[in-house]
User: What shape does this take?
Amino acid sequence: MSEVRNMLSTPNPDPPAHTTARHLASTVSESIMSPLRASAFWATIALPLLALVLLVAGVVSISLLTTAGFLAAYGACAIAGHNHTPN
Assistant: This one.
């Protein structure tokens, strides 16, 4: 019977030290993710313009590799920056 009682009474899984650590981790994460998200958002806007300029200037040519690279970079930026709200 005492085993059942011990199993039912669980200690507090979130003591104050863990709460502080989680809050600190959340703050650090947001301070890193916010600029990253903003950069990705603006890169999503700038990448097509940059690609057009590079094509017109003859710096790059249209090939399977450059197209795939552009689409991969554009997709990654679009996914990373989709939650950014510019002020």
Observations:
- The chain has three helices and no strands.
- Helices lie at 2-8, 16-57, 64-81.
- The radius of gyration is 24 Å.
